[in-house]
Specification:
heterodimer; A: 166 residues; 36% helix; B: 441 residues; alpha+beta; 4-stranded mixed beta sheet; 3-stranded antiparallel beta sheet
């Protein structure tokens, strides 16, 4: 547990150096002025199991990423609980590292004694390999992606309990 | 053709497929073609998309390359940074402060700790303890997963203090570091590292007692070896059959090939031979006297040194021994650390070819860069350990598979996946891997 005083952990995922649709990282640059005081921001190429296992009780996590399986430029919100629901219809995002996202959430649930709270905010990507930069469809969706992130941060912040400072 | 049906004994004439191998880093599958009871083909099918990093770095400056190649892997980014930074510094004639050298080794030890802890506890231990995955293991044996995560956390924090963050560190620069920690920052990690040494010893006690499948062969092993230390950043490329090569000269003895079933290139010796990298190779080829005394004593007490060389399923014990070594040596480096007098020496790019090999958690990682007159990369070659281990994995699968093909498909799959996981393949690095298919006729 890291006792971080801010109620929301914002994980921005992507590998912008490759010239792909690393929209999660780009979005953070736009939304940081609007959420700086409320969020602990982590930028990373991928989810680390400890990002969710070490989430203090009462804190929430919002993960910003680009995703396959959605129409390029469309924005979706997938709450963690939908991914933990064995009967749920939510598509489990695939992870190329460590554990698949749904398994990572289940492991965090077992280790924390309660499920981590929060959501994925994803934008459908078009370019996932070497490219010339952000694809037009994702660039056009960035304002909506950023607004959705800010809205979700606000909604999940309201669900957070007072932080426990170690 | 898939499924069972047309032959009475599936062991004699069958194709076996695992569409997506689980608990490995990245996406790949496994295909076995069995005819007359003989495994004719064992293919590790790496279908994760090619990632083109060798092209992305072209036209970039050396410092940009260090940031870019770190993105090849979320688990072993330091390995990529270390092979690259040493290649550039060797080419440019850069001599770094001794404390910078020590700090780079400490950063790498942090990566070994977090990577080995992840693999031992979350990816591989469930196979030996009879659990489908780490979640089931955590439900029944919570203390084990807590210990694994605590070790991983220690490695992550070491990397964060030195590199700025655990995934894709930021501070490594040609000539040194953009920022170096104060001694007090490292000393703050001392209690965690002391605990990590105890946890790592307990890890070896755990895995040494696990029932590993009996499967022995005599692989050609390859690793860096140094007369001065358990080799990580510096050493010569050596094998157990007499190869002794400068660490810049990997291409003199080895080459890469494209195969139809894999998005990753496969490496072999120029004579076409397979070879094996990683913890078992390092423990076999390095002088045991260079292991930290705590790790050396643990290895001797385990009595596993010889078996680790021959049985791939004991790679889990090799990782545990390296966990002890890395934690104990990290503690020593922290104690001895003095901030460098010069954290970043000035340098000037010069045209030419720089090449270097270092020891990633999964084994030897070779980088080669051609730098142009403009000081930018004109051509790059990156040969990750998984690309080099692929042929050995396929060879071992062909040897091991006949023992399990008469089992129900799910059980055969589990055992074959356990073998693949023993090599800790990182498919994302290699494409820079796993579904299993058995083809039955």
């Amino acid at each position: 547990m890291n006792g971080h005083p801010r109620p929301v952990r914002l994980l921005a995922l992507g590998a912008i150096d490759r010239g792909d649709d690393a929209a999660g990282l780009l979005a953070v640059d736009f939304l940081l002025p609007r959420v700086r005081e409320r969020c602990e921001v982590r930028r990373a190429g991928g989810l680390d199991v400890l990002d969710l296992v070490d989430l203090d009780p009462g804190r929430v996590c919002v993960i910003a990423d680009a995703a396959r399986g959605l129409a390029p430029g469309s924005v979706a919100v997938v709450p963690f609980e939908a991914l933990l629901d064995p009967d749920g219809a939510a598509p489990a995002p695939r992870s190329s590292h460590e554990l698949p996202v749904d398994e990572l959430l289940k492991l965090a649930t077992v280790m924390r004694g309660e499920p981590p709270r929060g959501c994925f905010v994803v934008v459908g990507g078009e370019q996932f390999s070497l490219g010339g930069g952000l694809s037009p469809s994702v660039e056009a969706a960035l304002p909506e992606f950023v607004d959705t992130l800010v809205r979700q941060i606000g909604e999940w912040e309201a669900c957070a309990s007072p932080p426990q400072v170690a | 053709m898939h499924g069972t049906a047309t032959v009475p004994d599936p062991r004699l004439d069958a194709d076996f497929d695992v569409a997506a191998i689980t608990r490995v880093e990245g996406e790949g599958g496994l295909h076995l073609r069995v005819r007359d009871g003989v495994v004719e083909e064992a293919h590790l099918e790496i279908f994760e998309a090619p990632r083109y990093f060798e092209r992305i770095v072209v036209g970039r400056t050396p410092d940009e390359v260090l940031d870019i190649v770190a993105r090849i892997c979320g688990i072993c980014p330091v390995a990529y940074q270390m092979s690259a930074v040493h290649a550039f510094e060797d080419l440019f004639g850069v001599v770094v402060d001794p404390s910078v050298r020590a700090l780079r080794r400490l950063l790498y030890l942090g990566e070994w700790i977090q990577s080995h802890a992840l693999h031992v506890y979350l990816l591989h231990a469930p196979d030996y303890l009879g659990y489908a995955n780490a979640i089931e293991l955590a439900v029944d044996r919570r203390e084990l997963v807590e210990q694994g995560l605590a070790l991983k956390r220690t490695g992550n924090e070491l990397m964060t203090v030195i590199g700025g963050r655990a995934i894709h560190p930021l501070t490594v620069r040609v000539g040194g570091f953009s920022r170096v920690p104060r001694h007090a920052e490292l000393l703050a990690l001392r209690p965690q590292l002391e605990t990590a040494v105890r946890q790592a010893r307990s890890t070896l006690d755990l895995v040494a007692g696990l029932a590993a499948p009996t499967f022995e062969r005599e692989p050609r092993l390859l690793a860096l070896r140094s007369p001065a230390e358990y080799a990580i950043n510096e050493g010569r490329i050596v094998s157990n059959d007499g190869l002794d090569l400068d660490q810049r000269a990997w291409e003199d003895a080895f080459e890469e090939h494209q195969v139809a079933w894999s998005h990753a290139l496969q490496a072999r010796s120029r004579a076409g031979a397979a070879y094996l990298l990683g913890p078992a190779a390092r423990l076999t080829l390095n002088d045991p006297a260079l292991l930290h005394p705590v790790a050396r004593e643990a290895l001797e007490r385990s009595g596993l040194a010889d078996a680790i060389r021959r049985n791939p399923f004991l790679s889990i014990a090799a990782r545990a021994i390296e966990l002890i070594h890395a934690s104990a040596e990290a503690l020593d480096v922290v104690d001895a650390y003095r901030p460098p007098a010069e954290r970043l020496v000035s340098w000037r790019a010069r045209p030419g070819v720089g090449a270097w090999s270092t020891e990633a958690p999964r084994g030897l990682l070779f980088h080669r860069y051609e730098v142009g007159e403009d000081g930018r990369v004109a051509k790059a070659r990156i040969v990750p350990p998984t690309s080099q281990n692929q042929v050995s994995i396929e060879t071992d699968l062909a040897l091991f598979a006949p023992r399990v093909l008469d089992l129900p498909h799910a059980e055969a799959t589990r055992r074959l996946e356990q073998l693949v996981r023993a090599y800790d393949p990182c498919i994302s690095c290699a494409t820079h891997f796993l579904d299993i298919r058995i083809e039955r006729r």
